[in-house]
Amino acid sequence: MSFLTLAVLIIAAMLLQRYTLAHCLDGLKYDIRSDRRLVECGESFHLTSSVENDKALPVFFLHLDETVPSSLQIAEHEKGIRFRRVRTIGTESSSSMEQVVYIMPHQRLKRTVEVSLPERGRYLLKGAQLTAGDLFGLQERTMTRTMAREIVVKPGKMEIAHLEQAFGGYLGEISVRRFIMPDPIDTVGFREYTGREPMRDISWKETLRRNRFMVKQYDFTAESRASLIADITGADKEGAEAVFSAARTICEMLEEKNIQFSFVTNAWILSASSVFGKVQDGTGPVHLNAVYECLGRACLDSTQTTEKMLRDTLKGKNDGRSYIYISADPMKQQDLLRYYEIETGQKIFAFNALRKERVL
Questions:
Q1: Helix-, strand-, coil-residue percentages of the chain, each rounded to 5
Q2: Per the omega criterion (within 30 degrees of 0), is the bond before 86 cis?
Q3: pLDDT in the model for residue 54
Q4: DSSP string spanning 272-304?
Q5: Which has more pLDDT, 336 or 221?
Q6: Dihedral (C-alpha) 354, 176, 265, 70: value to the nearest 10 degrees?
Q7: Which residues make beta-bridge pairs with 114?
Q8: Most confident of the following: 20-29, 32-41, 337-346
Q9: Which pLDDT band, with edges at 50, 70 and 90, does 138 fall under?
Q10: I need a labelling partner for 111 at 20 to 30 A (CA). Which of 21, 158, 172, 237 fits?
Q11: CA dist., res. 95 & res. 77, Å (int)
Q12: Which long-range contacts (CB under 8 A, 24 or more apart) does 209-217 make?
């Protein structure tokens, strides 16, 4: 081989090395998704990562470094993935899943991994760093793809036996209450005011017409309703988790009995969307999933005091619904609960989530 030929080959190799380095990250697309966004604690689900090379040049070397929750657990049978714990990004701890691949022109690689998350909470898949090299592996370039794919883990269930013992038929009373409680929506007539009815029930038109105080007479309600109040004020981690677990189980019991219910909590809700700590009356899977979202995303900080939450939820209400108050220590709010029982004319069922017992 002549010197000139050797020089040409070296120059060509250098140009090819520079070109492949300059364009090694061009046309690369990355994504990661979970097959389910709402899962149980410890339940297996799948993460699918995809990398697409949308150019006519192969990627000779690609190091994929994905940012995942630090508590993520990979199934034992999964091979070829390096899992590193723990690194801190912002205020949250994260880990990484690493893999090295080779991608042909216009090729799309997909990898599915079986994983699980052991604790209740809201978790983020934050994207990945993609590092590619030149033809000879001498130099590298890196780019970052950021995202915020959410996974919500529901609280665990509380033992049904404890709840059934504590409720002592209370849910059964709610389910038949429609036969004895009036519905303020359907007015069927009027009767004379006795002094025991709320002032808002007075019909001033009938009062003027008959020259004596008259109140509206309501039909019986068409369906039973309940309001569930989850209070984490002053609770430590154990107490708050007990409140969330009890709330989930009670909601499922109400759903099973086809009782319409609303839900409210003063826990701070971690959310990148419009998920708040309140769910209106309803039944069915969609309604129940909305409650699961609140409970899974809830953290240990409270957004308002117990007094404000009870006032907003109970004050001025007299629609025949039942109220279920869950706390790690309901006795601290005994006076408030008694006040609103008188205000609403309804019994408030207070449940100690730590002791798994009814207290009032």
A1: 30, 40, 30
A2: yes
A3: 93
A4: SSS--SEEEEE-SHHHHHHHHHHHHHEEEEESS
A5: 336
A6: 60
A7: 46
A8: 32-41
A9: confident
A10: 21
A11: 19
A12: 214/190, 215/190, 215/191, 216/187, 216/189, 216/190, 217/182, 217/187, 217/188, 217/189, 217/190, 217/191
The identity of residue 152, as a single letter, is V
Per the model's pLDDT, the better-predicted residue between 75 and 88 turns out to be 75
Instruction: Find out whether 135 and 79 touch, Cβ atoms under 8 Å.
Output: no
Which pLDDT score, from 0 to 100, does residue 170 have?
Answer: 64
Distance CA 184, CA 249 (A): 30
Strand partners, 95: 68
Sheet-wide strand order for 225-231: 278-282, 260-265, 225-231, 322-327, 348-352, 357-358
Cα 339 to its chain centre, rounded Å, is 32
- Measured distance CA(106)–CA(100) in Å, rounded: 18
| Of 295, 243, 259, 254, the residue nearest 167 (C-alpha) | 254
Place of tokens 């983020």: 124
Q: Indicate the helix (H) or strand (E) that contains 340.
A: helix 334-344
How far, in Å, CA of 307 to CA of 336, rounded?
A: 7
Q: Among 72-76, 77-81, 347-351, whose mean pLDDT is lowest?
A: 77-81
Structure-token match 């934050």, residue found: 126
Q: What is the CA radius of gyration of the chain?
A: 30
- 237-256 helix and 285-297 helix, angle to the nearest 10 degrees: 180
Under the banding of pLDDT at 50, 70 and 90, the label for residue 180 is very low
- CA 255 and chain centroid, separation: 18
Residues 181-190: tens digit of each pLDDT: 444 445 556 7
